[in-house]
Amino acid sequence: MDRTISLFSAEASGPGLGDLAGLLCCHGQITGFGRTAARLSVVVDEPWRAHVLAREFRCRGADAQVAKAECGHPQVRTSFRVDLLPLALRWLRAGCAGPAEDDSGKEVPDGFRLSGAMLRMWALAGGRPGTQGYLLGVDPLAPNMHERLVEALTPLGVTAKLTGPKAEVPAVKVTGKRRLEALLELIGEPPPGAEAAWPGAEPRPVSHPEAAPSTA
Length: 216
Prior knowledge:
With 216 residues, the chain is an alpha+beta fold. 28% of the residues lie in helices and 17% in strands.
């Protein structure tokens, strides 16, 4: 277990644009502009998430702006960029340019391998402690992705399951001391301000952003 974690943890390699795929595991959206460029955006439930994620974008060479989405929650969004096009081509279904009203247009790419860095982005955008375990939010507009994401966690030593139909919002749930320790080692220490949303913290109510398409 320790060897697996050391190979895939967020600190195992330098930051890269590919890490931002972790935002697409939750409710992040990517929009293509023909086959020339793409824009990545994510609406979050708390301002600290937006500002931390904007820094994560920038340290990967993708400048991002923080603004208020139509639903009133903070949003982080890049401009249309050529270097984000490969991400769009991998994650958007063939012939789909981006999210529609009731469909994100996303799918988990064939051969997808989740890394600790991607998992850290996922936690920063949509992770939170639950009453029993840790919850990683998933996109309600992309139910076809949920089981695939659970499967992607298994090779990292983090066996998980989906929350039941009575859950307030859909999420991947990680339970058990060893699995939570593995998750924590994969995503690393929380940035300042994120401590309450990290594995091991006490659960608290959240105002979850609606999964809605971003405005271009």
